[in-house]
Amino acid sequence: MKITAAVIRGMEKEDPFLIEELELDEPREHEVVVRIAGVGMCHTDLFSKISLGMLPMVLGHEGSGVVEKVGSAVTKVEPGDHVVMSFGYCGKCHNCLSSHPAFCMEFAIHNASGGREDGSFTLRTADEDVFGNFFAQSSFASHALAHEKTLVKVDKDVPIELLGPLGCGIQTGAGTVINALKARPGESIAIFGAGTVGLSAILAAVVCGCTKIVAVDILPERLELAKKLGATHLINSKEEDAVDVINKITTNVGVDYSIECTSNAIVARQAVDAVRILGTCALVGVTMLGDELTVDWSNVAAGRIVRGVYEGDSQPDIFIPQLIDLFKAGRFPFDKLISYRPLSEINESVEDTHSGKAVKVILKP
What we know:
Helix 4 runs parallel beside helix 5 (about 195-210). This protein starts with a strand and ends with a strand. The protein folds into two domains: about 1-165 and about 335-365, Medium-chain alcohol dehydrogenases, catalytic domain (Quinone Oxidoreductase, Chain A, domain 1); about 175-310, NAD(P)-binding Rossmann-like Domain (Rossmann fold). The chain has helices at about 45-50, 95, 105-110, 170-180, 195-210, 220-230, 240-250, 265-275, 295-300, 315-330, 345-355, and strands at about 1-10, 15-25, 30-40, 55-60, 65-70, 80-85, 125, 130, 145, 150-155, 190, 210-215, 235, 255-260, 275-285, 305-310, 340, 360-365. The strands form three sheets. Strands 3, 5, 6, 9, 10, 17 and 18 form a seven-stranded mixed sheet that branches. It is about 25% helix and about 25% strand.
């Protein structure tokens, strides 16, 4: 079928997305075609644009929309259903079978190989194949093709165009607090980086009952938003040493948890140094293969835990509906992070994301 998509044809930061007409495969037996209502712009898209090296390609991995076509063996959804599209996974490895699909042993194959598991393409022009299947969707487009297991059916009483970022950035931040760290009432947490992931973590920390919620960023407007969303302490790390301030807030003990969302090694070191003995620092920022983190050996040897977290260690079929229920109850107002642009303004959205002008842009085809 003919679709419209935002295609990248150059890996440099300044190379624009180009709106083009492509041919999308018909769904195979377990695949579904989704008409995209909204798709979030994420730093992972921008990182992948300059790092994957597969051209031409369609990115986009925070899509939501309406099911239009289903393959012959699909049982999970049917045409007309509202769905959020999340990450791909094999469903067969040890980690998938032990309820940790975000740590699938074949994660790269299903999310960043440019095609299906068997290597086939899902997108093309009249003259060339186009890399797609990014995070099992490639949703910077009017329509996307996905495996049924990656779709989460959602209620129709919430605007479907709002829900796409629940499939990655928002579930990453919230899930890190709720699923991976399992924060409890009365505990303390510091979030380094007040973007989509960090602010979602703040919302989740409020849900969990954390009583000291420290937001660390260099943009005053982001810190003000963090305060509105529930942060109890704000640190502008351009002006103050974050670790020193956190030690004062916690009477030299350190926080129970910290989350590093910036992909900056210096900031990551601060996040590790900010946690108490037996506390946990979660690293969620996206980095290049081979990037190294230096920590104080004695700090970690004393019992501090440093761990990575993908996708909030979430099971999307369970966690995304929980977040929607919290949103409907007024306890998880993630809509305060959102602004909208048409898909045709994707390059302006890139600029807004790089500059920090926008927290989370949702593109509407």
